[in-house]
Design goal:
There is one protein chain. The protein is 9% helix and 45% strand. The protein has 659 residues and is mostly beta strands. The chain has 8 helices and 46 strands. The strands form 10 sheets. Strands 6-7-8-9-17-18-13-12-11-10 form a 10-stranded mixed sheet, covered by helices on one side. It starts with a helix and ends with a strand. The chain binds (dicuprio-$l^{3}-sulfanyl)-sulfanyl-copper and dinuclear copper ion. The site of dinuclear copper ion has 8 residues, from loops.
Amino acid sequence: MKKVFVMTIAAALVMGCILQSCRPNKKGPSVDENAAQKAYVAPGQYDEFYDFVSGGFSGQVAVYGIPSGRLLKVIPVFSQNGENGYGYNENTKAMLETSFGFVPWDDSHHVQLSLTDAMYDGRWAFINANNTPRVARIDLKTFQTTEIIELPNSAGNHASPFVTCNTEYLVAGTRFSVPADYDNGDVSIAEYKDKFRGHISYVKIEKETGDMSLDFQLALPPFNYDLSHSGKNASSDWSFFTCYNSEAAHTLLEINSAKNDKDYILAVNWKKAAEHAAKGDCKVVTAKYAHNKFDEKTGMSKSEILDRVKVIETREVNDFLYFIPCPKSPHGCDVDPTGEYIVGNGKLATNIPVFSFTKIQKAIEEKAFDGQVDGINVIKYEAALHGEVQAPGIGSLHTEFDAGGNAYTSFFVSSEIVKWNVKSLQIIDRIPTYYSIGHLSVMGGDTKKPYGKYVIAYNKITKDRFLPTGPELCQAAQLYDISGDKMKLILEFPTIGEPHYAVACDAKLLRPNVKKFTTLAENNNPYKISSMAEARVERKGNRVDVYMGAIRSRLVPDNIEGIKIGDKVYIHVTNIEQEWDIPHGFAVKGNNNAEILVMPGETNTLKWIPNRVGIIPFYCTDFCSALHQEMQGYFRVSPAGSATPLKFSIDDKDVKDLK
Ligand code: RUQ
Ligand code: CUA
């Protein structure tokens, strides 16, 4: 009784606070004296870590060097990127196709790196799209998005894309429960409890190539599946998900989904689930979803729409998954490096519950259950619990780990990181963040042997931290030294979009394998030219193909006449350079499209539909040589049906229309 009372007061406090996050009102303790030295990476020196940070509503992934906080690259993933033509050019347009058609943007939240035995293996990064449910794979040799798969029956793909410890699968859980695509979705929202379901996808990763395929899904009660992590060591065969809204509310969730004192962690034995799916203990349903692949050999992408998926209905087949009560509206779901401890981060909880994998197994054996939800056994809270961290802070969101048995939890409302010991559950240290931290990331913090060294806070609000830039301010990361007993703030730097989860790996893992350029011989693009001698213009009906070469400091051909209104012009630019870091760009005046940036040895195609008669210049957009400004040419656009002959010039000589 007393306990309930205390919980209610605390919950009220939290609720009051959550609307207006309680940020420290002073600029707070200054940085550590040696901070500058610790974060300083001298010009010409490399950072120790690559940090892959989700771009949130930018839809992209940003790569930073740590400890310097220098932004190294933005990898376009789910959003069109006019800067290099991703999602605009003919090569990559298909990557953004979905069953809804072309979706040019998304909201990306969680980066994961491929794992071998719960350690980064440096092959791929994965990231989810929250809005139109998708997951993407990035090749870590080229830092390019090479595959995107859509997830049917889902909405708000948030508990995603967490990989199992040998990258057998990545999981992708739906945040919104919705009627499945294979059911009639034209239902009253008041029928939420009956007609809505939550689906979790298991996407299989092909061992050698990384190719993704949707192996099976689980149909689950209509809760909001929020975050996940997979087990390690003894718990390797399991994935864990937090879910909130166990009330199955569908309006005013702020209040209606915060009624129960506990929601759940869902523990899934994915090996068993996969066996069920393989044996056919599932239904095969029709649901449309896109699968897009970028072929690095041809530099072209393809999109196909698939329409079959295996769904395990957990009302019927449920000997492989369990709910564990978890206080209260949990968000982060994190597994410690040993794989033994599973931490739930209750946004409205007054403690941090830590569950024990050994105890969970024992509870399953001994059937220490507390009833069922929709056929799924609920393990007794105490039977699964290792213990609780008491009064750790307000609004806990995420937890990461170091190699010394410590955990670091972010608190949104009290704006701080709290360090505690996983075994003893004692709080060791706390430090403010500026302001309102969401995710946090310890270097290597989701592997079985974290590097430790630093924890980075990814903050939602910056307020007064940087020079003001109008109503919209940047969001930011803050770097803390965790090598000693006390956490020390050493650096902060702005991030792109909204930073969510981030993972950092030792630069040595990736650096030796990074691809420098494509050789012309290995470029299998159908529109490539290998030398300027092959440059040409061809017309077929109203389609004009320009095979253009770019080399310091010419674009060939450079003067093209005989283009007419009504034509569709495809300009295939091959960068003939065979040297690292010599890109050429290409842009056409007034083109209702982007530019293309073409890396050495690659071919990119830009589409242009001329809509004005006259002389239209084109040029290289990347200052590539002292004579970069000389890399230019003209199109002559004539009226539709006019008799202007097709002609172009190659190195000062006119080449007449051949057709
Ligand atoms: S979220 S701030 Cu990962 Cu989308 Cu927690
Ligand atoms: Cu090529 Cu500038």
